[in-house]
Amino acid sequence: MRYWLLKSEPGDYAIDDLARDRRDRWTGVRNYQARNFMTRDMQIGDGALFYHSNCSVPGVYGVARVCAAAAPDETQFDPGSKYYDPRATADKPRWFCVQIAFVRKLRRPWTLAEMRQTPALAEMHILRRGNRLSITPVSADEWRLLSRR
DNA sequence: GCCAACGTTGGC
DNA sequence: GCCAACGTTGGC
What we know:
By secondary structure, the chain is α+β, with helices and mostly antiparallel strands. 20% of the residues lie in helices and 33% in strands. The structure holds a DNA duplex.
């Protein structure tokens, strides 16, 4: 059982969208490191913190769970998608996505500012300068703190 | 809107 | 394989 932080811009896909859909494919990841986390390390049942980025109050807004292992991301084959990748073929897909299921919203979000002020979270990837990775591992201690609000 | 940080691309 | 140029991310 591992734990992850998944970033999403709420204008594109917010925790309320996941709450409505109940589960969804985590499509659109176009970074090799993040992809490798999904294909190599994520397992069904893993916990995920749903983080809103690039918005007025960035932070963790909810909890989800990995509910299906990585499979080819269909958006890479769709010329109409902004995630289309002409280099990908059905034989050799380049991008993959897991599915996640909604668990719950936090009663009160953990804002980025608040996370920065919390010594127990000081080692988190998300707090490092220049961090851009959309999927990062979270320790069990960090998970306990952030997921129980 | 600004800009630092980072990943990717492509010429050599 | 190197590395400069470029595009993107994302907090502020």
